[in-house]
Write a structure and sequence with these properties.
about 210 residues; mainly alpha; Tetracycline Repressor, domain 2; 9 helices; elongated; HTH_TetR; TetR/AcrR family transcriptional regulator
């Protein structure tokens, strides 16, 4: 087989692997969002995605591996949404508000985001070692938001006396609280809450 054919075969194999992983993760998220964490067995995930249980084990190895893959998938999708909004081109205050807007605009309609918070709630309630990946993901959000607050202060659009780290934690806690509330009350109308949150945050942080 010549080098071009070998490269094409490798690309095809990689494409198949990425496709199967994506379909397995989507199936896992759907099961968790619809039926809870207990329903997301490797056998059920494989059946829903049209693959074998063995492939799920091969791809993720363990429940923690699956959860870490789901978190990475969600983070990548959020990054794509944030990049599409061009937050880096906005001043610090507008970037913070843009982050909140994107998160809340997608929260009600995104089944994978719902699955993420179902998993997180279970890990916290069970005092499970699976809390660690969630803690790391939330720390990443805190660091990102803190950087936006500091940028806004340097630009003069966010109050200079504001504690940037505390403000980042407060915004993260707001998003976490609303996400949890949506699990308790799936029929909650997020649109007026989104508008009120953005107005309140602007009034609180603006210079």
């Amino acid at each position: 087989m010549n080098s071009a054919l070998k490269a094409s075969a490798r690309r095809t194999q990689t494409d198949r692997r990425l496709q199967s992983e994506s379909e397995l993760l989507r199936a896992a998220a759907e099961l968790i969002a619809l039926r809870g964490v207990a329903a997301a067995t490797f056998e059920n995930i494989g059946l829903r995605a049209g693959y074998s249980r063995g492939l799920v084990t091969q791809r993720f190895g363990s429940k923690q591996g699956l959860i870490e893959a789901l978190i990475a998938r969600l983070q990548a999708r959020m990054e794509a949404l944030l990049d599409a909004r061009h937050l880096d081109a906005l001043d610090g205050l507008e970037a913070v508000l843009g982050f909140v807007d994107i998160f809340l605009s997608n929260l009600a309609e995104d089944g994978e985001m719902r699955a993420y918070f179902v998993l997180m709630a279970g890990a916290v309630a069970d005092v499970s070692e699976l809390r660690a990946p969630f803690a790391a993901a939330h720390k990443d959000v805190e660091v990102r938001l803190e950087a936006l607050f500091l940028r806004g202060q340097a630009q003069g659009v966010i109050r200079a006396g504001l504690n940037a780290d505390a403000a980042a934690l407060m915004v993260g806690a707001l998003l976490l609280g609303l996400s949890t509330q949506l699990l308790v009350d799936p029929g909650m109308d997020l649109e007026p809450i989104r508008e009120t949150s953005l107005a309140a945050l602007r009034a609180s942080f603006a210079a």
